[in-house]
Write a structure and sequence with these properties.
Elements: H1 7-14, H2 24-30, H3 37-42, E1 48-50, E2 58-62, E3 68-70, H4 71-81, E4 87-90, E5 96-101, H5 106-115, E6 132-133, H6 148-159, E7 173-176, E8 190-199, E9 202-211, E10 224-230, H7 235-249, H8 260-267, H9 269-280, E11 300-303, E12 309-314, E13 320-322, H10 323-336, E14 340-343, E15 349-355, H11 359-363, E16 382-384, H12 399-412, E17 425-428, E18 442-451, E19 454-463, E20 475-482, H13 486-498
Helix pairs in contact: 4-10, 6-7, 7-9, 8-9
This protein binds iron/sulfur cluster.
C-alpha cells in the first residue's frame, strides 16, 4: 500500500465498500441520520448514491451488462421506479438510473431487483462499472462476433466477487463485435474491438485491444492501441491481467491521477504490454485488421440475422421515460417481440425479435408518438446527462436546454430536419463529461458565466468528435456561450459542418464494403 493515501483510500482501508451492505437494514430502520459520511461513500459500491441537492433521497444505478433486459426484469424496474420518483433514466453506459428513494425503501428495492436477476452492485466508485457491448449483439447481420456471452463473463469477473472491488479508480470496459464501434472503444479504459487475422487460407476472428481511454475533469484521452490481438476465449484472461495490474500499481495517492491512463503514461505502452503478457503467461499476437466505422445509433427498423425478424430502434427523448410510457414499452416488447429490450449508448431503446409481418401494426401503436422510430436528424442524436438541478456537480441544466435548442432549431430552420443521417449533439452539465460531449459532432459542456453582474448558465461548444476508425476528440469551437445564445452558435456549426465531406452522412456508415460477417 502506498504512503499518503487519499480520503477515499482511507475510507476503503477502514472497511471495504461492499461490506456496507450488511448495515443497510440498520440504516433503513434507524433513518438517514444514522449513516456516516464514510458509509454514504461506501453505499456507492452498491449503486446507492446520495445526492446533495435531493436531501435524504438516493439514486439507484443498475448494472445491465451489454444493455440486455428481459421483460420480467423490466417489470421489476417499473415496480421499484414507482417507489421512487417514477422516472426511468437510461445512461450512456447502457445502464439505468432511478431516483427519489428514501433509505427506508432501499433494502426492499435491492431485494426486488436481485430476485429479478438484476443488480446495482459495483456501479459506482472504484469498481468496474457496467460492461458495455453492442446493443444489437446476436442480431446484427454484419457483426463479426456475438459478444453477448463475453460481456456477461467479463461482468462476472469484475463484479461477481470482492476480488476487484477496491481499484484505485473506476475502470470502464467495452467489447465491440460489430463494425460500428457501438460500444465506444475509444473512451474506455480497456476496450476490445472485433478484428480478423488472415494468414493465407487461415482466418482467425478475435479482438484488438485498446487501453487508457477516459473522459472527464482530469483529462480526455482516446484509448491507445495495445498492438495486441486476442481470441474470444482469451478476453477474460486479458481483463484479469489488466485488472490485477491496475489494482496493484494504479495511483492511490492522487485520485486525479488514478485512472488506468496514468499508469500507462508512467510505465509507457511497451512496459504495460509486457506486464500484461507476463500476467497472462503468454505472448500476445500483434493487432490484426479491423474494419471499424462510426455507426449511427440504431433507430429505425432493421432486419436481423435471424430470417424473418427485425429489431426496432426507438428514440427516447432526452434519455428518460416516465413510468406509464416505460410500461407501454414493456407491453410492446412482450406483444411484438420476445419480451426483450436492449439499451443503447445514446440512451435509446431497441425492441428485438419482431416478426416482419407484425412491424406495421407495431409502428402504428399510439405510444410510438412518444418514442419515435424515425426521430429526425437532430432529435435522434441528442444525448444529455442528468445536469444541474438533479446532479450536484452540474453547472448547467442539460435536458431542458437540449429540448429547447432542438425545438427552436427545427422551428427557425426547418431544413435541418432533412440533414442526411444523424447529427450527434451531446450535452454535459459539467467537465465530468457524462454526456460524452467530446465524441459528438457538436458537444456542449456546461459552465457558469457572469453576464451583467448575474451568473448565468452557459456552454463551451466543441465540434467534430467521433469514434470508430478515424477517432478523434472534438475541438473547441466557442467558449462560454450563454444558454440563450446557444441556438445561433449551433446553427452556425451545422452550416459549417454541412459543407465538410467528413461530416456528410454522419452516422450513416454501416460497414466497409468487402468485409463479410463470419
Ligand atoms: Fe452531473 Fe456533470 Fe455528470 Fe452531467 S456531466 S451527470 S452534471 S457530473
Amino acid at each position: 500500500m502506498q504512503a499518503g493515501l487519499n480520503r477515499i483510500e482511507r475510507i476503503k482501508s477502514e472497511k471495504d465498500g461492499l461490506k456496507v451492505r450488511e448495515e443497510l437494514e440498520s440504516f433503513a430502520s434507524k433513518g438517514f441520520g444514522s449513516i456516516t459520511q464514510a458509509d454514504l461513500e461506501r453505499l456507492k459500491w452498491w449503486g446507492v448514491f446520495w445526492r446533495k441537492n435531493t436531501p435524504e433521497l438516493f439514486m439507484l444505478r443498475l448494472r445491465v451488462p451489454g444493455g440486455v433486459l428481459k421483460s420480467s426484469q423490466m417489470r421489476a424496474v417499473a415496480q421499484i421506479a414507482a417507489m421512487g420518483d417514477g422516472n426511468i433514466q437510461f445512461t450512456t453506459r447502457q445502464g439505468i438510473q432511478l431516483r427519489g428513494f428514501k433509505i427506508t425503501s432501499v433494502p426492499e428495492a435491492l431485494r426486488i431487483l436481485e430476485e429479478a436477476g438484476l443488480s446495482t452492485r459495483q456501479t459506482g466508485m472504484d469498481n468496474v462499472h457496467n460492461v458495455m457491448g453492442c446493443p444489437v449483439a446476436g442480431l446484427d447481420r454484419h457483426e463479426l462476433i456475438d459478444v453477448s456471452s463475453l460481456v456477461k463473463q467479463v461482468s462476472g469477473l469484475a463484479a461477481g466477487t470482492q476480488e476487484f472491488s477496491n481499484l484505485p479508480r473506476k475502470m470502464l470496459i467495452s467489447i465491440s463485435g460489430c463494425l460500428d464501434d457501438c460500444a465506444h472503444s475509444g473512451i474506455n479504459d480497456l476496450a476490445f474491438t472485433a478484428a480478423i487475422r488472415q494468414r493465407g487460407r487461415f482466418r482467425m476472428t478475435g479482438f484488438n485491444v485498446r487501453v487508457g481511454g477516459m473522459l472527464g475533469p482530469h483529462g480526455q484521452r482516446l484509448a491507445e492501441p495495445l498492438d495486441a490481438f486476442v481470441l474470444p476465449e482469451e478476453v477474460v484472461g486479458l481483463c484479469r491481467a489488466v485488472l490485477e495490474l491496475f489494482r496493484e500499481w494504479g495511483n492511490r495517492r492522487e485520485r486525479s491521477r488514478g485512472r488506468l491512463a496514468f499508469l500507462i503514461e508512467e510505465w509507457g505502452l511497451d512496459r504495460f504490454r509486457a506486464e500484461v503478457e507476463r500476467r497472462m503467461g503468454q505472448v500476445l499476437l500483434p493487432a490484426a485488421t479491423e474494419h471499424l466505422c462510426w455507426g449511427a445509433d440504431h433507430a429505425g427498423v432493421h432486419p436481423q440475422r435471424q430470417h424473418g425478424y427485425s429489431y426496432v430502434g426507438v428514440s427516447v427523448p432526452l434519455g428518460a421515460l416516465h413510468l406509464p410510457i416505460f410500461k407501454e414499452v414493456i407491453r410492446l416488447a412482450e406483444e411484438y417481440g420476445r419480451g426483450e429490450i436492449r439499451l443503447t449508448q445514446a440512451q435509446n431503446l431497441i425492441i428485438p425479435h419482431v416478426v416482419n409481418s407484425r412491424i406495421p401494426s407495431m409502428l402504428r401503436e399510439k405510444v410510438m408518438d412518444r418514442i419515435p422510430f424515425m426521430p429526425g436528424s437532430l432529435a435522434g442524436g441528442v444525448v444529455a446527462c442528468t445536469g444541474a438541478g438533479r446532479c450536484d456537480k452540474g453547472l448547467a441544466h442539460t435536458k431542458s436546454h437540449a429540448l429547447r435548442v432542438i425545438k427552436e432549431l427545427e422551428a427557425r430552420y426547418p431544413w435541418v430536419q432533412s440533414l442526411t443521417g444523424q447529427l450527434r449533439i451531446h450535452f454535459s452539465g459539467c467537465p465530468s463529461s457524462c454526456g460524452q460531449h467530446q465524441i459528438a459532432d457538436i458537444g456542449l459542456q456546461g459552465r457558469l458565466v457572469r453576464v451583467g453582474g448575474q451568473l448565468v448558465e452557459a456552454f463551451d461548444v466543441y465540434v467534430g468528435g467521433r469514434l470508430g476508425a478515424d477517432a478523434r476528440l472534438a475541438e473547441k469551437w466557442a467558449e462560454a456561450v450563454p444558454a440563450d445564445k446557444l441556438v445561433d452558435v449551433i446553427y452556425e456549426v451545422i452550416v459549417a459542418l454541412k459543407g465538410q465531406p467528413v461530416y456528410k452522412g454522419v452516422g450513416m456508415g454501416k460497414y466497409v464494403p468487402g468485409v463479410s460477417a463470419v
